[in-house]
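Late entry, written up from scratch paper. The run itself happened at the end of the previous shift, but nothing got recorded in the book at the time, so transcribing now.
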Amino acid sequence: MDAMALEAAYHYLQRAVGHGTSTEALLLTVLLLLIIRLAWVRAFATTTASTKCKQQLPPTPPGKLPIIGHLHLIGSHPHVSFRDLAAKHGRDGLMLVHVGAVPTVVVSTPQAAEAVLRTHDHVFASRPRNPVADIIRYNSTDIAFAPYGDYWRRARKVVNTHLLSVKMVYSKRHDREEEVRLVVAKICELAMAAPGKALDMTELLGGYASDFVCRAVLGESHRKHGRNELFRELTEISASLLGGFNLEDYFPRLANLDVFLRVVCSKAMGVSKRWDNLFNELIAEYEHGKEDNAEDFVHLLLSLKKEYGLSTDNVKAILVDMFEAGIETSYLTLEYGMAELMNNRHILKKLQEEVRSQGKKLDMITEEDLGSMAYLRATIKETLRLHPPAPFLLPHFSTTDCKIDGYLIPSNTRVLVNAWALGRDPSSWERPEDFLPERFLQDQDGDVDTQMRGKDLRFLPFGFGRRICPGMNFGFATMEVMLANLMYHFDWDVPNMVGTGAGVDMAESFGLTLRRKEKLQLVPRIP
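Output as recorded:
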């Protein structure tokens, strides 16, 4: 039995090394050495829990191996693997898997999500330690990765009250409209200069999201010295280091190895140093020349440090959150939305008819024009249902023992809410794999719940409970005005397939966020 487990582990690692990056290959090689060293010890280690206690734990898939646990059952798209495993082996929406050395409970139904995120929210509101986040997020003193406690509550209050309140989001409308106007002008210029030429919409939409977030955070100096591009670069690197199923998260002993410290931590420390140098430069400028009434996020946070007991490093950590969450969510959802519209031309036509029904030619659609566009909001919600930016949200962590439907969830257990699976659950959604914005039109008047707080937790693109994303309104406003103007000003087609109605490839790659494998190339035409 021991030899079979070790052989299976070896073949699993060999396959992973063959398909991973050089960093992953190196870490996996180290992991193999750990297996050789520890396999005999772990193979004979048995739990002391009684049969009764075992029965109280959530059901688990068969085939668990020493050291790697159920890793060999998880494919390149873990959200899909967990959905399929839960359908076979889970019960009451709960399933216990061992991802490497870490026991992880996977939540796959609205009822189980309600138990975790509402009924027992106080138990699961914390986060597991993440060594990379500790480096990049100033010892995880941001909002996303900070453990639940007094500091997190204070930091969260600052963000909710002063940075991302409804009033503040509304106050940024002219900045959003200006950034949209620049993108529309650029597309018009390119479309007239080279009719029929495809544009890289991934780059354009990513640039728009980055520029607006930078403008909100930095104010009018957001393009100074190319800072908008630099912040976007740092955001992408940080997301890649934090993304997906990292070995150090599921084999905690790796975090103490010299090779891990040299390879992964050195990269994280390099990125952290770049963030820190940039923030120090900004803070120096703002402390010596910014108006007291300025409403950019840097100035607001610095002015609130004393009131909320924040250090300068705390301010920097919160700013990293603003960049990473604000940029990634908005541009990925816009890209997925455009891709789905290209694959569903009848919906594209219906959306354009709504947006263009203003009765007169407008320079651009402003946020004041959006109030009657229920189908636009429904289209964005449907995009988020099928393509939640973070398929597992961020991991939750139990701080004490808890029972859900008779199952024991021990303290210090990692909990993953499969938001991707919730959005495609056939028991909750009619034709769950189809792109149907109409499902979010609640009545004949087309009134849509744009708050996305859901009554039954079937739909959780921004999470729920204490850990719900505070930037929900900020992100939705960023997406809505841009998509409206893309629909208003241009007709769209696929390169080399103009007039055929051909669609685009929706193949995905998994990480901290889901994204399409290929860049979105589309041909704009001015009607």
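The radius of gyration is 24 Å.
(Scratch paper discarded after transcription.)
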